[in-house]
Each structure stands twice: as C-alpha cells, then as structure tokens.
Amino acid sequence: MLGPVLNYEETRGLVDALTTKHPNLGLIVVREQRSDLEDWVDELSLHAVLNPDATDETTVGLLDRLASWLIAHGHAETHDFDAPLALEIDDLPFVSTAPVTQEAAPDPADEGAFGTDQEVEIEAPTWEFPPLEAGTATEAIAVVAPKGGQGKTTIAINLATGLAEVAPNSVVLVDADLQFGDITVALALQPEKTIVDAVADAAIDELVLKTTLTHHVDGFFVVASAPSPELGDQVAPAALAELITRLRSTFRYVVIDTTPGLGEHTLVTLEHVTDAVFVTNMGVPSLRATRTEFELLTKLGLMPGNRHVVVNQVDKNSGLTIKDVEKIIGAPVDIEMPKSSAVLLASNRGVPLIHDDVRDPAAKAIRSIVLRIAPEAFPKRSKIQRRRRSNESE
Ligand SMILES: Nc1ncnc2c1ncn2[C@@H]1O[C@H](COP(=O)(O)OP(=O)(O)O)[C@@H](O)[C@H]1O
Ligand SMILES: [Mg+2]
C-alpha cells in the first residue's frame, strides 16, 4: 500500500520499481478518488485505489479480495496469507519522505565518523538578496479572514512560493499571526530569529533586519512568528507597520499572514498594503463576518486598492451556491478554492502545496491568485518545476 503522503512522481517511481522487481506483489495506492486524478491512476499498473478515509472493514475486505486474486492468478499460495498481520510499524522498512532543509547545520553527532580533527565544510548559502532596481513599485499583500481556520496560512505560503517564481529571493513572507503563527512549522523551517527581533530597535539597520529572516529553498524569506503568544503580544501595531514599510524598500513582494479578525494589528497592516486577499469558507457565520468586515473597512477608508475574494473549501454539498455566497458577502467572488486533501498532506510534509502537487485543484486555485497579482507569473512555470525537481534529486 503506497501513500497517501506520496505525491504523483514518488508514487509512479515506486510503482514502476516495484512492478519490475517484484511482479508478484499486489499494489494498492492510498489516495483520494477524484475524477481529475483518474488519468494518473490509469497510467500506473495498480491493483486498486483505496480512499485514505476508508473504514477498517473496507480495507480488510479489499486486502482479502486482492489475496484471492493473487492466488487465483498463481502469484501466491493460500498459505502465504495464513499468518496474521503481526507487524508493528517500527518493524517496517521505512522510506523517509521528510523534506531536507537546505541550510540544515551539520549534526554534531555525525562528526565522530570523520574524526573530530577534520574540518567540517559548511556550504555557503546559494542565495543572495537581489537589489531592487530604482523606481520598482513594490507590492504588499495581506491575507485576512474574520475567523481562524479559513485557509489564510495555506494561501499566504503558496502565494509567496508562486511570487518567488517571478521574483526569486525578492519575496518575504511575514507571519503576523502574532499569537498562533505556524508558517515555520508548515514549511519545516527552524528559524533562529523571529518577528520580535525584526521589530527590535537594532533592526532599523537594513543589514541587521536581513539577519532576522529565514530563507526557504523555494526562493523566499520568512519573518517567523513570535516564539510565544506573550512575546507576540509585545509587538506593537506601529512596529508591525514600520516593519512592513521597511521590508517594502528591499523586497519586490511582501506577503503578510495576519491574526484573524480586525484587531489593531490587522487594521494597521491593511493601511500599509497594496492588496488584500480575503479568505472565507462557505459557512454562513464566516460569510456574514466577511460582509461585516467589508462594511467596516469601507467605512474606515481602509479597503486596500486591490481586493481579492477567495472562497475556500468550496463544497458542492454545502447547500449554498457561489451566487448565494456573493449575495451574503455583498461582493463578487474572485477565486473558488476547492476542498482537497493535498492541502493537509503538503503542510504535513512541510512543502508548499503548489510545488508538492502541481495538478491539485486547490494548488491551481492558488496559482490563479498569484496570476492576479503578478500577471507575468505563468509562462515559466513548467520550466521552473522541472528545474526544482532535478535540483532536489542531486
Ligand atoms: N482547500 C482546502 N482543502 C482542504 N483543507 C484545507 C483547505 N484549505 C485549508 N485547509 C486546512 O484547513 C486548516 C486551516 O487552514 P490554515 O491555512 O491554517 O487556516 P488559517 O491560517 O486561516 O487558520 C488546515 O488544517 C489546512 O490544512
Ligand atoms: Mg493561520
């Protein structure tokens, strides 16, 4: 059984290798069964596809049928299936799919193997801060939602990733969800400095500010969230505004993930951005809250120049159509982002979704947000994809 943490390329590689080496093996891919995934499933020599949410009963039933099929076709003997499945997870050969972070420091425990006298060569970073050409109009994009859990962080991360294809290393992603920021977790980064350092007096100096950033291999920088909610609370709204302004003088794009609701920090953020991405799911409470948010921002004169309305986790069974949604929020919907299990998988793997599962419909929805902000984003996409993948396997 393969998956569901494996993406298309990994699954395909394993299926090809296993069917060549062990033609007698029964192969099941565990992954969502959706019509848009049928063609890639069709390309593989599989016995079955199993939904990750399948009950134990369905799973055992499928295994029984596969066993009977293997026996009937002479690939196995009845007694091969006599022994009960007594393997513990720890006994299984394990292929790690954990992402490797580029700047990971050498583990001191590994040094013994080379002897302690030997010098450990530390690779210099392969990135640099490209200078902004004079007169370049920089853009700042806030991702906001009236409530938590709507998909702000998912969108902010993937927006930064997509924009970094257009402006490599000239994108910074600010985790301004001051209490519960989780961007570095979702990207498997280990930040040395956080937003607390980035707003400190010393960071008025541009060079010092740059040392508070954490680099991501996909070509962008992250201002990590505060190490604790208490420290996050100490970041003053004015300091956050100042940080955004300073980052805008160095980076082509500044993407800001915000605290849910319209607290002081989020209001001040909206005052300093060119674009706002409003995220809501299809729940009526969230839609009503979005409407209230729009009305309030319009009244305060704080609606940013470019507004992008994203309805996330679009579900045909919600009882609402997009027309209903537009009526409730009192504004047109710009992007419909479908519900997809690839979102959680990418986040658990610590990889941006748009690079983890290129064909995923939620990833495609995020690409269309990128395109609204950077219309030049699309043409190079497939080339960049291939280059990234070949780098990874080096
Ligand atoms: N389109 C989607 N399909 C499925 N799950 C999603 C989708 N968007 C977000 N999620 C999941 O919903 C949860 C909340 O998303 P997150 O981006 O952390 O929201 P927020 O930052 O607004 O709290 C996460 O577990 C995420 O994986
Ligand atoms: Mg979040």
TrEMBL record:
<dbReference type="InterPro" id="IPR027417">
    <property type="entry name" value="P-loop_NTPase"/>
</dbReference>
<feature type="domain" description="AAA">
    <location>
        <begin position="139"/>
        <end position="279"/>
    </location>
</feature>
<dbReference type="InterPro" id="IPR050625">
    <property type="entry name" value="ParA/MinD_ATPase"/>
</dbReference>
<protein>
    <submittedName>
        <fullName>CpaE family protein</fullName>
    </submittedName>
</protein>
<dbReference type="InterPro" id="IPR025669">
    <property type="entry name" value="AAA_dom"/>
</dbReference>
<dbReference type="Pfam" id="PF13614">
    <property type="entry name" value="AAA_31"/>
</dbReference>
